[in-house]
Amino acid sequence: MLFSSLTFLYYFMPAVLALYFIAPMRNGSPRLRNWVLLAASVFFYAWGEPVYVLLMLGQAFSGWFFGLLIERFRGRPASRAALAGSIAVGIGGLMFFKYSDFFIDNANALFRSAIAPLGLALPIGISFYTFQILSYTIDLYRGNASLQGNFFTFSTYVMLFPQLIAGPIVRYVDVERELARREHTMARFAQGARRFAIGLGKKVLIANALGELVDIYKKSGDRSVLFAWLYIAAYALHIYFDFSGYSDMAIGMGHMFGFHFLENFNYPYISRSVTEFWRRWHISLSTWFRDYVYIPLGGNRVAAPRYVFNILVVWFLTGFWHGAGWNFIVWGLYFAALLLLEKYALGKALARLPAAVSHAFVLLCALVSWVFFDAADLGGALSTLSVMFGAGGGGLASAEAAYYLRSYAVPLLVAAVGCTPLPAMLMRRLFAGSAEAMGGEEPTEDRLAEADDGDSGAPAGAGSVAPAGAGATGAARAVGAAGGAPGTAGGAPVAYAGDKTAGVAQAGAGAPVAEAPVAGDDVAQAGAGAVSEAPDAAGWAPVAYAGDKTAGAAGGAPVAYAGAGEVPAGAATAGAAQAAVSGAAAAGAGAAPAGTGAVAGGQPPGQAADLPGRPLDWARLVLEPLGIALLLIVVTAYLVDGSFNPFIYFRF
Q1: Engineering a disulfide at 228: which of 240, 388, 453, 581 sits with its beta carbon 3.0 to 4.6 angstroms away?
Q2: Is residue 260 annotated as a catalytic residue, yes or no?
Q3: Cβ burial, residue 616 (10 Å; 0-12/13-18/19+)
Q4: Is the alpha carbon torsion for 201, 204, 209, 215 positive or negative?
């Protein structure tokens, strides 16, 4: 059952929402509502996989049972053995169902044997829920997560249908608290509905339309250079809007049910390096491999040969995770080679190049990578590449290629603009002060919305994050910085601001830092250097968002972000500084206001000012529901009649 199907939209989802909110909350506990979600998730999965739902339940029981053993024998060899058992069962199940025929086919080719392939159907979502179970047992063993003693609650986490099929990969530590207690508000539900509608539109109206063009190329005998590049450009945009659309829908449904799922995409096609691209693309997967494979192997705090080995292992596994084929393995190793090339040769050169040139380099690398990703096999990928670079014998252009370029010019243009922050920026200007409601992709938006609802935020203290104050609506982001305060000659600003991924600030450097953690919501302990590409030297501060768990540097000076791309202005006093945006005050003993500089909309620091855009609340109340209703009407029309799509009616 797809999120974008009429069955899901008009039968399953309304029924689940009705049952969910009818179920009472006793003493604030969502236990009965968890039961509704679990039953709905089992039904959702059984709709398409009636047999493999037993496999998923078995894997969930395995993870829960090994978790009990890990906690029971903590500190003893048996605990490590239980962790090994959990990994063996999880990875073993994944290997058997997903990769058996791959290994059999290669063994037959290598040894000239005739072993019959098993022909097993791939269980839907097995790659995602396997990694979620492993994140629980590994974090439990490390002491980063608490034991979940209730099997049904744990199963709810594993099988939660919004993110079960296509992610994002949700870690237990991220939803641990919300499984036991969560709040439901109309504002959060409305935010989730908006986000779901945006994702639905991205998937159905843009991704599906571009998918049609991809299929047309594959069925066509035309092998002109123009058609090949048109195909791969359409595929690059198709896979982005398809995958990010599903992530948007999952995150939106999470909000409806009171959960906060971390962001999975952050405008990857605006990246200026391949390293940055993978900080923005499929964030939940890249951070999973970083935390559970790359760092345990030694990360970047090893000798150069071992570092190269670590990168190759991680990207081999990343490619193999995506599919059981050599083309996926080559796809992963291709990115490993690019990352190593940037690390040792091109990194500084790319940073000095004009933005347009570095963007073009990343886009070219991404387009070539998608050829391997979409191909049926390695030979097909090499054939397509030969056509793209003029060796296919089809000429530079053809009448057929020109026709489809004209026919799909509008959806291609819409997608090209839509994969940048421009639409979100325009919406923020229209609905000023309501950034978190616009359904953008920034990794911080859910955390900001969480702080806005007043149910999270790190405790105040030296170097820690302060929760957003009353009335804050996503304007403030606070991070700890070791040493000097922002705005002074010696203080270092954070590398990125607004809708950019967070950077790392260095005490007293007076300059932004180019390297940042892999994903916005993951932080490096000050001085630890454990995160990939995070500086290794002591004195580097962790990066955090409001509501994140972070170990701040003692005595650090918090910095407040102000809106999209804005940094607080004004000089800061010595010591632990304080900056405030829309009522969000940063912590620190003896904190002093950050001078007289204005922050976000001309409001002085430290003053809980009225949010900009409040007079436009009536527009939000009227225009947003109308917009969502219109979007649902258009999507429904397209699902009923596939020929109806407003984007492909505009032909030149």
Answers
A1: 388
A2: no
A3: middle
A4: positive
